[in-house]
Amino acid sequence: MPHEIPATPGRNDIDPHLKGDEYDRVVVHGTDADLAAVVLRLLRTDRVADVPIGFVPTDRAQSVAARVWGLPEDMVGTALTGGDRPLPLVRDDVGGVLVGLGVLLSVHGTVYCDDAVALRGDAGRVEVTPAADGVEVRVVRGRLRRPTVHTGRAVQFGIDGTVPVCDGQPHPRPVTRWTWYRHTEDLRTIR
């Protein structure tokens, strides 16, 4: 049974619908931020392993999660009837999740992807997306330099103050340290 909830919903909007076993899946129609809000509630209610989640983005061209998940053209049909497959669930160290794209702009500092140094110095942009191993880190130093790409279980930033943007939502304040890492349980994605 469909339930309409507000954009980037919170605990009181989602949790009542996650109680019990009356649903065999949750399907989110919205933005990557809306999807992240629902995934966060699945995590906080300890339902990640129990509830498959489908996604139908309102604007496929703007959705990094749709690309990361490899969603087909018939997203609605797949979300409603498709089977689920595991995809690493990426968390951050302040209690959030990342389902599509995490971005830090004008980065100055050091970035590690597992044991590898992904950046020491300056970069115009660092992008992080979920990947098969956990996370993929793309460091963009400038228009004339080819980006470097690293994959691993976690990425850690020790940087001058900058504002991380997670699935299109800016963090409320600048940070000097930030981590995205693979959760112990995978997300059950319908794709």
Rounded mean pLDDT is 92
Distance between the termini: 20 Å
**Which sequence of SSEs, written as H and E, runs from N to C?**
HEHEHHEEEEEEEEEE
The number of distinct structural domains comes to 2
The general outline is elongated
Proportion of strand residues = over 45%
Number of DSSP-assigned strands: 12
Radius of gyration equals: 17 Å
Counted by DSSP, the helix tally is: 4
What structural category arises from helix and sheet content? alpha+beta
> Helical residue percent?
10-25%
What does this structure look like?
- With 191 residues, the protein is α+β, with helices and mostly antiparallel strands.
- The chain folds into two domains: 11-88, no CATH class; 98-184, no CATH class.
- It contains four helices and twelve strands, in the order αβαβααββββββββββ.
- It has helices at residues 11-18, 32-44, 64-69, 75-81, and strands spanning 26-30, 53-57, 84-92, 97-98, 102-113, 116-131, 134-140, 148-152, 154-162, 165-166, 169-170, 175-190.
- Strands 3, 4, 5, 6, 7, 8, 9, 10, 11 and 12 form a ten-stranded antiparallel sheet that branches.
- The longest helix is centred in the first third of the chain and has 13 residues, at 32-44.
- The model has no long low-confidence stretch (mean pLDDT 92).
